[in-house]
Amino acid sequence: LLELGELLISLNYLPSAGRLNVDIIRAKQLLQTDMSQGSDPFVKVQLVHGLKLVKTKKTSCMKGTIDPFYNESFSFKVPSEELEDISLVYTVYGHNMKSSNDFVGRIVIGQYSTGAPESNHWRRMLSLHRTSSEQWHSLRSRAECDRVSPASLEVT
């Protein structure tokens, strides 16, 4: 199995404010997509409600590393009654000057999680309310995500 790398993220939900807070902390051992110039990875996080893409945010681009530290926080407005229909799609790309950005790997957390570790992280966040829950996730291929998570098909 090709290792695509790992992503450390933190989640917490503030019911009173109806805010879902997402921290993209760091990534490690990312698959290098461009051997000639090294990797300049960034992470895109997309909020999908049911099967509709609602919002896209992205981290800054880290130059020349496959072990980037981001420590970037994003906040999404999500009323508590909508939480069960939410998926967060995290995609790591290698920034590429010449063409479109290179896909490195993806995970989906939430309603259409891409696997047990992702589902467990989501459930832990829901039960912890207001406390941040941090976890490493192994990135998956686009084909795998598209196969197991309808939310993955909704984002570009």
UniProtKB/TrEMBL annotation:
The keyword Repeat applies. Residues 3-137 form the C2 domain. Gene3D superfamilies: C2 domain (2.60.40.150). GO terms for cellular component: exocytic vesicle; plasma membrane. It comes from the Eukaryota. Keywords: Differentiation, Repeat. Pfam families: C2 (PF00168). One of its GO terms (molecular function) is SNARE binding. InterPro entries: C2_dom, C2_domain_sf, Synaptotagmin, Syt17_C2B. Belongs to the synaptotagmin family. This is Synaptotagmin-17. It comes from Callorhinchus milii. The lineage of its organism: Eukaryota, Metazoa, Chordata, Craniata, Vertebrata.
